[in-house]
Specification:
The structure holds 2 protein chains of 2 kinds. Chain A is of the alpha/beta class. Chain A folds into 2 domains: 177 residues, Rossmann fold; 75 residues, no CATH class. Helices cover 31% and strands 27% of the residues of chain A. In chain A, α4 packs across α5 and α5 packs parallel to α6. Chain A is globular, with a radius of gyration of 18 Å. Classes of the chains: A alpha/beta, B mainly alpha.
Chain lengths: 258, 280
C-alpha cells in the first residue's frame, strides 16, 4: 500500500527505444489528484512517457519519484490503460476475468479472489456501465466496450496514479461520456490522472493542466496558457490550422510510437 | 462391445501403451492451450525435431535416450529465447534456423550409426507398444509435473500471454515465465516421444486445444475440454490402431483431427454451420 499524499515528480527524464531518444530531459511535477492532458504531435513521446512511468521502458537518465520514492517502489500505485490494440482480444476470457486482473497486484501469483476482490470488480463494472456484460467473451464486445473493460480493470486496481493512452480515440460517444464522467469522479477521489489525447479542444475544455510534448517538454501549465496559438504552433509546426478559436491538427490517426 | 474393448487389454504392453497415450493426450492438450493462444505452433514443431540429435548422442554414448532428448529440447528452447531476445532477429527466424540445424545434426549423427536405421521410424512416429514399465513411470511423473505447473502458474502465464504490458506494470518476470513455459513445452514433447513421435507431436499440441477454443469462452474450461479431447483421441486412436492395424500415432492424430472438424462445423458459437444458419 502507498501513503496517501504527495505527487508525481519527473526530474530530467530521458528515455527511448534502441538508441533513439523519444523523450529528452523532461522535468515536471503533478500535484496529488491533479488531472493532466498530455498532447503533442505523433511521435512526440506521449506513449513513451507512460511506458516509462509503468516500468515498460527503462529510464536513460533522470529520475521519477512517486510519493517521494523512486519508481518501482509502489507497483500497486500506477494503473495503465493501454491502447486497445495492445492485447489479443480473441483470448478466451470473459469481461469479469479481465477486470479481475486488476486485483492481481493484491493477490499475487497464488491467492484466489476473495470477497473484497469480487466486490471491487463488481463496483468497477457498474461504474463503467458494463455490469450487464460481465459474462460476455471479450472478443464479442465493441471497441468502446473493450475500452471500458480496460478502464474498469484500472479502477479495480484502486490506483493512486492512472495513465490513459488515447482513451477518446476511435470509441463511441457513450464510452467518451462514461470516461469523462469517470474523470470527474476520480477528481473527487484524489486520483492523479494523466491522459494522452490528440484532441486539443478536449484537452482545453476538460483538463485543468496540459502538458505539451514534442520529444522535449514544450509547455506545461493551465490549459489556457499552454494552448495558446504561439505555443501550439511551436509544437506542431505547419501541421496546425486555426479556425476561429479552434485549433485543427493535420493528423488523422492515434500516434504510432514504435 | 465390452469384449471389443477388453480384448486388446489382455496384453500388458497394450495396457501400458494405452495408459501412456492417455497421459500424453492430456498433457499435450493442456499445455497446447498456450501453444494455440500464443501462436507457438511452429515452436512446438521445432522443439520436437530438435530432440533428434539429443537422442542420437545419447545412443552413441550409450546413455538414457529420454534424458538425451530432454537435454536437447531444453537447450534448443532456451537458445531460441536467447537468439530472439536481443531483438537481433525475429523469433520465427531464430526457430527456423535452430530447427533446421538440429534436425540436420540429428540425421547426420543417425546416418553414421548404421544399426540404428530401424529405430528412426520409432522416433519419428512413435512406438506406443514398446512402452516399458520404467518408461511409463517417467511419462507419468513428467506429465504430472507439467500439469501441476500449468495449474499453479495459471495467473502469471495468463497475464504474460494475454497482456504483457500488464505483466510489466505488475513487475512480474515476463522473460523467466516465458522460459519456464518453453521448458514445460520441451518436457511435454519428450513425454510424447514414445507414443506419437516427433513428427506428430505438434498435432497433439495444437489440434485438441484448437477444438476446445471453438467450444468455450474461458481459459480454464478450454483447458479441461482440450484435455478431454486429447484423452478421447488417444483412446479411440489406439483402438483404431489395434483393429485396423495402422500406425498408432497416425490413428490418434487423425481422431483428434476428426474431433476438430466436428467442432469447426457444429460448435454452438463459432461453428460455421451455426454461423451460416444465424446469418440467414
Amino acid at each position: 500500500m502507498c501513503p496517501i499524499r504527495n505527487r508525481l515528480v519527473l526530474e530530467n527524464v530521458s528515455a527511448g527505444y534502441n538508441g533513439q531518444r523519444a523523450l529528452q530531459d523532461v522535468t515536471l511535477q503533478v500535484v496529488h489528484g491533479g488531472q493532466v492532458a498530455v498532447v503533442g504531435p505523433n511521435g512526440a513521446g506521449k506513449t513513451t512517457l507512460f511506458k516509462v512511468l509503468v516500468g515498460l521502458l527503462p529510464l536513460r537518465s533522470g529520475q521519477i519519484l512517486i510519493h517521494d520514492e523512486p519508481l518501482g517502489q509502489h507497483k500497486d500505485c500506477v494503473a495503465y490503460v493501454p491502447q486497445r490494440s495492445d492485447v489479443d482480444w480473441r483470448f478466451p476470457l470473459t469481461v469479469t476475468d479481465v477486470v479481475m486482473m486488476g486485483r492481481y497486484n493484491r493477490q499475487g501469483w497464488f491467492r484466489q479472489p476473495d470477497r473484497d476482490d469480487r466486490a471491487a470488480v463488481q463496483h468497477a463494472l457498474e461504474q463503467m456501465g458494463i455490469a450487464d456484460l460481465a459474462r460476455r467473451a471479450i472478443g464479442d464486445l465493441s471497441g468502446g466496450q473493450q475500452q471500458r473493460v480496460f478502464l474498469a480493470r484500472a479502477l479495480a486496481q484502486e490506483p493512486h496514479i492512472l495513465l490513459m493512452d488515447e482513451p477518446f480515440t476511435g470509441v463511441d460517444s457513450t464510452t467518451q461520456e462514461t470516461t469523462l464522467a469517470l474523470l470527474a469522479q476520480l477528481k473527487q477521489q484524489q486520483v492523479t490522472v494523466l491522459v494522452s489525447t490528440h484532441d486539443l479542444n478536449m484537452a482545453a475544455e476538460r483538463f485543468e493542466n496540459v502538458l505539451l510534448l514534442n520529444r522535449q517538454l514544450i509547455a506545461y501549465g493551465p490549459a489556457r496558457e499552454v494552448l495558446s496559438p504561439t505555443i501550439i504552433q511551436r509544437a506542431f509546426g505547419g501541421r496546425v490550422l486555426f479556425v476561429g478559436n479552434v485549433a485543427v491538427v493535420d493528423e488523422c490517426c492515434p500516434p504510432d510510437e514504435g | 462391445m465390452l469384449e471389443w474393448l477388453m480384448t486388446p487389454l489382455a496384453y500388458s504392453f497394450m495396457q501400458r501403451g494405452l495408459l501412456a497415450s492417455l497421459i500424453v493426450g492430456v498433457v499435450c492438450a493442456v499445455i497446447g492451450c498456450y501453444v494455440v493462444l500464443r501462436g507457438m505452433a511452429f515452436m512446438g514443431d521445432a522443439l520436437a525435431h530438435a530432440i533428434l540429435p539429443g537422442i542420437a548422442i545419447a545412443y552413441l554414448l550409450q546413455g538414457n535416450l529420454t534424458l538425451g532428448a530432454l537435454v536437447a529440447a531444453v537447450a534448443v528452447a532456451l537458445l531460441i529465447g536467447l537468439f530472439s531476445r536481443q531483438g537481433a532477429i525475429r523469433e520465427d527466424t531464430a526457430i527456423g534456423i535452430l530447427f533446421a540445424a538440429a534436425l540436420s545434426l540429428g540425421v547426420a549423427l543417425i546416418s553414421s550409426i548404421r544399426t540404428y536405421a530401424v529405430d528412426l521410424s520409432h522416433i519419428l512416429f512413435g512406438n506406443v507398444l514398446g512402452v516399458s514399465p520404467s518408461d511409463l513411470w517417467l511419462v507419468g511423473g513428467l506429465g504430472l509435473l507439467v500439469v501441476i505447473a500449468v495449474a499453479v502458474l495459471y495467473k502469471p502465464f495468463l497475464v504474460v500471454s494475454f497482456d504483457p504490458v500488464l505483466a510489466a506494470t505488475l513487475r512480474w518476470p515476463a522473460e523467466l515465465l516465458r522460459n519456464i513455459l518453453l521448458v514445460l513445452l520441451a518436457l511435454t514433447i519428450v513425454v510424447s516421444l514414445q507414443t506419437v513421435g516427433v513428427g506428430l507431436v505438434a498435432a497433439m499440441l495444437v489440434t485438441p486445444a484448437a477444438t476446445a477454443y471453438l467450444l468455450t469462452r474461458r481459459l480454464p474450461a478450454m483447458m479441461v475440454i482440450s484435455a478431454l479431447a486429447g484423452a478421447f483421441s488417444s483412446l479411440i486412436g489406439l483402438y483404431l490402431s489395434y483393429y485396423a492395424n495402422i500406425a498408432s500415432g497416425s490413428a490418434v492424430v487423425l481422431t483428434a483431427t476428426a474431433c476438430f472438424l466436428l467442432a469447426f462445423l457444429f460448435a454452438p458459437r463459432r461453428g460455421i454451420i451455426v454461423r451460416w444458419l444465424s446469418s440467414r
